[in-house]
Amino acid sequence: MHKSTKLLAALGVTALALAGCQAGGGGGGDATEGPSTGDAIKIGASIPLTGGLASFGPIIEAGYQAAVDDVNADGGIVIDGVSHPVELVLLDNETDPNKVADQARTLVLNDGVAGLLGSVTPGLTIPASNVADLEGVPMVSSLTPNFAWAGGNPDGWQYAWNLFMDEQQFSDIVFATADLADTNKKVVIFADTEEDGVATGGLWEAEAPGKGYEVVYRADNPAGTTDFTADINAAKAAGAEILLGILIPPDAFALWEQMKALEFVPDLAFCLKCSSSAAFQAVLGDTAEATSNVYLANPSDAPEWADLTAKVIGEYGQNVDASSVLAAYSAARVLLDAIATAGTTDGAAVNDAIAATDKEYPIGHVKFRADHSFPADAATLQWFGNAQLQVFPADGEAQLVTPVVGLQQ
Amino acid sequence: MKRLFDAGVAPARNRSLIGLAIGLVILIAVQGALGRYQVSVLTTLLLYVCVVSAWNLIGGVAGQFSLAPSAFVGVGSYTVVMLLRGLETPVWLALALAVVAGALFAAILGLILFRLRGFYFTIGTLAVALAAMTWMTTWEFTGGTRGISAPLALIPDSKTLYLWALAAAGIALVASILVIHSSLGLRLRSVRDGEDIADSLGISPFSTKMVAMLLSGALTALGGGLFALQKASIEPFSAFSLDWSITIIVMAIIGGLGTVWGPVIGVVVIYYGITVQLQSLPAVSALLSGLILVLVIRFLPGGILGTVVAGVRALASRRTRRAG
Amino acid sequence: MDLGVVIAGLLTGGLYAIIGLGLSLVFGVMRLVNLAHGELIVVGAYAASLVISWLGIDPFLSLVLVVPVLAALAYPVQRYLLTGLLRRGLEPPLVATFGLSLIISAGLTALAGGDPRKLPSTYSTAGMNLLGQQVRVIDVVGLAIGVALTVIIYLVMRHTRWGAALRAASTDPSTAGTMGINVNAVYAITFAASAGIAAIGGVFIGTAYSFTPTSGMGYILIGFTVVVLGGTGSAWGTLIGGLVLGLVQSIGGALLGGQYRDFVIYAFFIIVLAAKPIAEHLLDRVRSRPGAIRQTGVRA
Q1: Contact assessment for residue A291 and residue A271, using Cβ atoms and an 8 Å cutoff
Q2: Is B42 within 8 Å of chain A by CB?
Q3: Residue C1 pLDDT more than 70?
Q4: Is residue C2's pLDDT more than 80?
Q5: In-domain check, residue B280
Q6: Taking CB atoms and an 8 Å limit, are A25 and B41 in contact across chains?
Q7: Over 60: is that where the pLDDT of B68 sits?
Q8: Model pLDDT, residue A21
Q9: Which residue on chain B is closest to C31 by alpha carbon?
Q10: Does B233 contact A at CB distance below 8 Å?
Q11: What is the pLDDT of residue A4?
Q12: Which residue in A243, C51, C88, C113 has the most C-beta neighbors within 10 A?
């Protein structure tokens, strides 16, 4: 008698849940073919508003929302003479790659988005790109290095597109910048074991000799390492004058402070990934002075984007955060402009329109390559107080400073 | 008929099996009527039922509180994706091999850790789970930190995936029913309640625990393989993430440990009730899960199912007393 | 083998000892597995961050406020939630602290956001020379804190009436109760003390490194490894366990390559766990003592 009570209770709860499922999800139904007159056109993204990459969340949101606001201000997207407002739907993936695919699917199946936008880093963007291809919904992403993103689908992306830097730039720009300074050409690499750490560290090590540099020490530590003293002392002993680092911010904070304490002051110190957000200088203060980063070059100076650029820089400061906002903006604009050009929300038609993109955006003159990526220009940026100024290729703003002043006692 | 409505182990087992069969038939039939979003939600829900039932066998019935289900999810995920990418094996074969891989890993885990009791066993499983994750980040064969992705053309469509998930949940529940309502279940519970006493009664704790571990590992790997098919791309930090263990354990405890249907209830409450409904407020959903866990462990030791059953029993006995 | 590697290992070991001491205390006295210990450390760091933003004082000075507050918050948690669960076996309190850790990290995320933070100080970048090796002053301070805490705990356990009450309650709670020791209060104060130690650890980590709402999880396994290595409940054992672990990680990383730093810890821990029963068995044989009754209470 008691066992069947258990069974009934369980079946009852499940039945109620399924009923709720029906009621709640009824609105979703099948993916919409196209909106009826005046209906909002939705685009969506799964972004990290909490978790390890939470500092990027609000920045990406700002970029996407600004694009949506600008399109709406111009009268929305006009299809067959009817003006459709654009709506942005965002879900927080808590910097958990496991959640991204589910959320992307929810956006497509439940919210009926006409297009997806990306996240940051390959780990959070590739699962959404997979969903885009599987569901036939176009997706445009940024803030994800091209080679790693393309590698996420060896068979080639169909509906997913990306605009960002090529990893090759991380090597070309870094060594070209180093050529500007007078150093002993000895390099130390600090890489973490995350996917971009392994790739970039390997790239630097492989290309250094060809550019006339010698890697005298390489440190590979798992993300979350707190103690670098042994590595720093080894780098000092090897006489390295150039530091190439790719670490997560918490590790970088520890490394930078430990270098200062141990009196290791290289001529040039690059920190990719770690100083890709203004938080680097906010946390380290003076210690961040003259640290370099390779990131997006200054935004396009095309007149149509001058106001936007000025507004974003006014709000975020002259640093990578502003560039990230503009990159996100560009991705969203590419998607929205393609929907407008296609004159429909049909996935295949919009996809073709994206493929035909050939226009100037804040991130540069966007034209996609065969592998669906667009290589944005990269540059070396250096911290001057709380601003990151482009020093190479020279843009008239600032000149390269050596040594790394912030690490001096 | 007699064997269905009596008290006793065999009738209880038969009732549960028939109940499960009815449930499965309903879920198959209803598929056509559901929208694509609901099918997707249900698929994930069913996969959680599979892995939570699997953990329930070792953590609930056998009482060996393991923090390593994440490692089995990872093993299953990687087995399936590597086979699809490298050899283009058919999905059913890849899943079957994931099951085998899960069982193998379970055997190794058991051999190393089953001599340990209580806290030491639990912390040992945590170490194994983390060791597995860090190992995978360095193993080039599986792509290291880059991870691997399955060819999108080989990923089953959502209807097929739904049926696979249904099959996985069904298999896990059948295994639970057969284990719990059997002498094996009795032996497992006796090991849980007093390992030395069980040993002195002639029950081999090691082999009993090992059977539960093998089943649990195999089924968790099956779920992991299917979870991977939902994502197509995996890498070590997410495939072996401890979050899997946390979620699975929370669902199992809240539902009711050691019971067949507890995991189902736990999954529905946590996944559907909290994760899905509160999708736009993840901080709230995490907070709520933790709060419910503390409240359940403090006030509802048998989980939701245990409390409901106890409540019904109390009501029934009160009625009998009043009548008599 | 570079002396620098050894010194780096010992200094890291100081941090590991601090993490382990709080865990060791509650596990030794109450057999409580506190899975929320990592979160308590992080809460200490955030609390200090708050105090510093109000009063602008040195992080270590903020401990004067942070430690009592955290201890006071922890007291009722043990008194009214965890002590009752201890009676029901090993799992319920473990699960409850599990739930608490989820609540705390979610709460911190909601209140403070996910950005990494540091506690501002002038000496986190100061260096000094130790035995010919250049090291960070703050790391030496960490080791000193670890040793100091160990000494304090040892002295309290061995030479105060309070410590005697603690040891009695841990060895045999019911008898201790009949002797007039308020076991519930003892347990609650122990947990509060453990939270205070966690706060000290949090301030140290916040000053020397950085923290986020979810960094607590990473400290738990280190903490338990140290506890198991050191022999549960022994303060000196925990210190030595922490130092050994730091050395193993540093030397292992130097020998096998930096990317194996974490793996070395986990592998070492599994080996220790697997070898523990064998080691105890051998020790018993050597000491000609039946293995049936082993001292599991608090040894100082």
Answers
A1: yes
A2: yes
A3: no
A4: no
A5: yes
A6: yes
A7: yes
A8: 43
A9: B119
A10: yes
A11: 47
A12: A243
CA A131, A132, A133: angle at the middle one, nearest 5? 90
Is residue A227's pLDDT more than 60? Answer: yes
Q: How confident is the model at residue A23 (pLDDT cuts 50, 70, 90)?
A: very low
Q: What is the SS3 assignment for A392?
A: strand
Contacts of B297 in chain C (CB under 8 A): 85, 92, 95-96, 99
Q: Is B249 in contact with C98 (Cβ distance < 8 A)?
A: yes
Kindly compute the dihedral angle of the four CA atoms of residues A363, A369, A371, A376, in this order, to the nearest 10 degrees.
-20
Q: What is the dihedral of CA A52, A56, A58, A59, to 10 degrees?
A: 170
Q: Strand A86-92 and strand A186-192: pairing?
A: unpaired
Mutate which of C111, C130, C138, C209 to test chain A, going by most A C-beta atoms within 10 A? Answer: C209
When divided into structural domains, chain B yields a total of 1
> Bridge partners of B197?
none
Asked if the Cβ–Cβ distance from B232 to A198 is below 8 Å, we say no
- CATH number (1.20.140, 1.10.3470, 3.90.930, 2.40.50) of C3-293 reads 1.10.3470
Residues 22-51 of C with CB under 8 A from A: none
Structure tokens at A85: 């407002």
Largest CA distance in chain A: 87
A224 and A250 Cβ atoms separated by less than 8 Å = yes
Q: Is residue B15 part of a domain?
A: no
Note the Cα A172 to chain centre separation in Å. Answer: 20
User: A21 vs B241: CB contact, 8 Å cut-off?
Assistant: no
> With 80 as the cut, is the pLDDT of residue C201 above it?
yes
Q: In what order do the strands lie in the sheet with A378-384?
A: A214-221, A186-192, A242-246, A268-272, A292-296, A378-384, A387-392
- CATH code, domain with B281: 1.10.3470
Residue B169 contacts A where some CB pair is shorter than 8 Å: no
A102 interaction partners in chain B (CB closer than 8 Å): 40, 44, 230
pLDDT in tens, A280-336: 888 888 888 999 999 999 888 888 899 999 999 999 888 889 999 999 999 999 999
In this prediction, residue B3 carries a pLDDT of: 65
Smallest CA–CA distance from B132 into chain C, residue: C263
DSSP 3-state assignment of A54? coil
Q: Do C259 and B138 touch (CB under 8 A)?
A: yes
Among A249, A246, A167, smallest CA distance to A201 is for: A246
Looking from the CA of A404 toward its CB, the CA atoms found within 13 Å total 26
- For residue C219, the 8-state DSSP code is H
**Cβ–Cβ of C107/B293 closer than 8 Å?**
no
Is residue B317 scored above 70 in pLDDT? yes
Separation CA A190–CA C260 (nearest Å): 15
Fill in the DSSP letter of residue C118. Answer: -
Q: Kindly tell me if the per-residue pLDDT of A36 is higher than 70.
A: no
Reading the block at residue C40, the tokens are 């308590």
Instruction: Decide if pLDDT at C186 tops 80.
Output: yes
Write out pLDDT tens, residues A62-89: 999 999 999 999 888 988 888 999 999 9
For residue B310, the enclosing domain spans 37-323
Cβ-based burial of A365 (10 A; exposed 0-12, middle 13-18, buried ≥19): middle
Sign, CA dihedral C137-C138-C139-C145, equals positive
CA of C68 vs chain A CAs: smallest distance (Å): 28
User: Within its chain, how far is the Cα of A404 from the centroid?
Assistant: 26
pTM for this entry: 0.87
Residues contacting residue C283 through CB under 8 Å, at least 6 positions apart: none
Q: Number of H helices and number of E strands within chain C?
A: 12, 2
Q: Are B218 and B102 in contact (CB under 8 A)?
A: yes
Residue B237 falls within a domain, yes or no?
yes
Are C85 and B298 inside 8 Å of each other by CB?
yes
| Token pair belonging to A74 | 């111009």
- Contact between B280 and A6 using a beta-carbon 8 Å cutoff: no
